[in-house]
Amino acid sequence: MEIIKTIRPGQDGSKRYQEKYGDQLCAVRYRRSPCKSTVYTTVEIIVAQREAYQQKGREQRPEKVGEDWVAIKIAYEELELRNEIRRIGGRWSRMAKAWVAKRHLVSRLNIDHRIVEGLVDQCLDVGI
Q: pTM of this prediction?
């Protein structure tokens, strides 16, 4: 259906609906049927409200334990270790000059001691 006109609460044409729905009224719309022979009047109302969930980027809780991303410092000369990180899906962050991988995969390689907590927040260039 095609919307012909939208009227906000308080404008002419919405007053009788505002009396009926009060503060719940969002809009009154006039719509034309596809065959263009009928005009419908619809109202948009608020039926429920709640607090919005706050999304804080990387501070969201991971779905599973160990699924969060961590930053790992590996020296340039440690070619074999860099290849292992790359093999498990690790990514190089130029911004933080560190490797980024999932915590549980880093634990499998037994290099937990190389994790730099909080550094992953600076790795904005790897798209995690």
A: 0.50
